[in-house]
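TASK: fixed-backbone design
INPUT:
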């Protein structure tokens, strides 16, 4: 019946995740923002874990989306 395309889960990308190629040619992902990581209950996100990306780690200590508390 024409131009409708069926959407399959394999062909869709999650708008909340950023997909990047890793050095071992497998694909990995990271959260686009700390807001999304926190909403998913994944914050803080540690280097080497799914969802971590250097753009989430402001101070470069290997912990993204740290929960800072005022002093």
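OUTPUT:
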């Amino acid at each position: 019946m024409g131009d409708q395309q069926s959407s399959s889960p394999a062909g869709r990308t999650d708008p909340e995740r950023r997909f990047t190629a890793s050095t071992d040619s497998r694909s990995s992902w990271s959260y686009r923002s700390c807001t999304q990581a926190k909403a998913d209950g994944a914050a803080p996100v540690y280097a080497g874990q799914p969802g971590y990306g250097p753009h989430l780690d402001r101070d470069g200590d290997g912990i993204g989306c740290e929960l800072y508390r005022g002093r």
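COMMENT: The longest strand covers residues 17-21.
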